[in-house]
Amino acid sequence: MIAAFGRRYIFSASHRLDAPALDADQNRAAYGKCNNAHGHGHNYFLQVMVAGPVNEETGMVVDMAALDETVRRLVLDRFDQANLNFDPLFADCVPTTENLCREIFSLLQNALPAGVLDQLRVEETENNFFECLREVD
Amino acid sequence: MIFLTRRAGFSASHYYWNEAWSEEKNRRVFGRCANRNGHGHNYTLEVTLAGEPDPQTGFVVDLKWLKDVIEREILAAWDHKHLNLDTPDFAHAIPTTENIAIAAWNRLEPTITAAGRARLSKVRVYETPEIFAEFRGQQ
Q1: Model confidence at A135, in pLDDT bands (50, 70, 90)?
Q2: A64 touches B127 (CB < 8 A)
Q3: Catalytic residue among B33, B46, B82, B98
Q4: Which residue of A8, A10, A17, A22 lies most exposed, with the fewest beta carbons within 10 A?
């Protein structure tokens, strides 16, 4: 019996959207107030869904404490109270929440058992969020 | 195809315990959830149906009908109950969020399928705002 388990986390980070390939005017036009020179921040909500067989002995898809530990180690410790632009992941890549979502998906996918990570959502504000879904062959 | 979701809440108590295990192993695996006196949650249930809007009403299904189905099949059985002790659903399954989602599906699916208007697409159960499980049927 396959089910999915979901868990929500929060981290606070700053960023500035500024693409090196664009000039100052183009960056302002593309990113508006998100291009503010000194950056700005958000409380990001991260929603991680893992899917797999429900273990018959425990009734669980995943050990939540182990999932929490993986997310804490790879995501929260890295990005909470940090400036995303200074993270090596965003050295050549604008820290939009689309890109952040993709990078976190990749970090967790590589750490969790193969095929387990089902959906990842990053909510930048109450009104916008981004999702990466597991690619089904 | 439209996906339509109805949300409902119920309050229930439960504990996690595998009778095949020692007390020590239950406490090690399930931690505080193994407290035999139980504890409780305000659960939120999200029931998602998939179908096409009826050309005359514009409804995939009548939401009042879906509300009544959820109340009859789920809330009447689980709201203000102890899931381990008061319901047959968890006689042989630990009432984890995963198993609650599966049991909710099993309670809802026959009625929704028999109505012939839409198919049950998924059931999501929030144990807290930060913890939830989802069942999408046998895959």
Answers
A1: confident
A2: no
A3: B33
A4: A10
Averaged pLDDT for residues A8-22: 96
* CB-based contact B94 A58, cutoff 8 Å: yes
Please give the pLDDT value at position B139.
Answer: 77
Give the pLDDT score at A137. 60
Question: Residue B76, CB half-sphere, CA atoms under 13 Å: how many?
Answer: 9
Question: Going from the N-terminus, what domains does chain A have, and what CATH number goes with each?
Answer: 2-133 (3.30.479.10)
Q: Which of B96, B131, B139 sits opposite A59 (nearest CB)?
A: B96
Taking an 8 Å cut-off on Cβ atoms, the answer to whether B93 and A59 are in contact is yes
Q: Which contiguous run of DSSP H or E holds residue B129?
A: none
CB contact under 8 A, B133 and A58: no
Q: How many domains does chain B have?
A: 1
The reported pLDDT for the residue numbered A36 is: 94
Q: Is B41 among the residues known to form the active site?
A: no
The domain that holds B115 is classified in CATH as 3.30.479.10
Record the pTM.
Answer: 0.89
